[in-house]
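Researcher: Re-running this chain for the archive, since the previous output was lost when a drive failed. Same request as before.
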Amino acid sequence: MTTRAILLSCALVFSAGVAGAQRAVLADEKPKVAPAAADLSGPWVYNRGLSDDAREKMREGMERAGGSSGGRSPAGGGTGASSGGGRMSPPPGGMGGADDPRGAMRGILEPAEELTIEQGAAEITMEEKFGQTRHLHPDGKKYRTDNGTAEVKASWKEGQLVVETKRGPGSRVVETWERVPDGSQLIVTVKTEGGFGPSLVLKRVYDRAQGDAAK
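Model: Regenerated structure tokens:
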């Protein structure tokens, strides 16, 4: 075989190998699919024993920062709390989405004891017993609360509902809602930045109400 024939044969073999490798890469590349939304619907009951104590976390954060509330309660009021750090009893409210900033902070410190979630493709409704009702639109678009004091954005990320609420420069609350695989619990992670106190990361656990079957 001549040198030219040998070189041509090698070139053909190399080209076939490259083409095969390219086909293999293309075969491995699968179209990206948006993560499925988890079904959060149903009645839920707050599990205080498995959840973080928000007030204790607030005290710890203030101690680490070396600051003092100056007699103010974490909810921003001077009444209702003793100078010795006595526990206030504010009514429960929504977390980041309440129109009243102090009400939003109360919602962080005092989560709803019972929660009913109705979930649709375009809207998720969270109704708190003896509290407020939140209407979330998980389309990733920003919108304002009814009185325009807060900006809210909700979206699905890796099967988790992520709700971001901004209220003024530097004040932000990010909630991540996740259902455990067997549907028996909701795990809610709340991250706060700015606002009335130190930045916090809180874990909340809700149990599915007795008698309600997971979907």
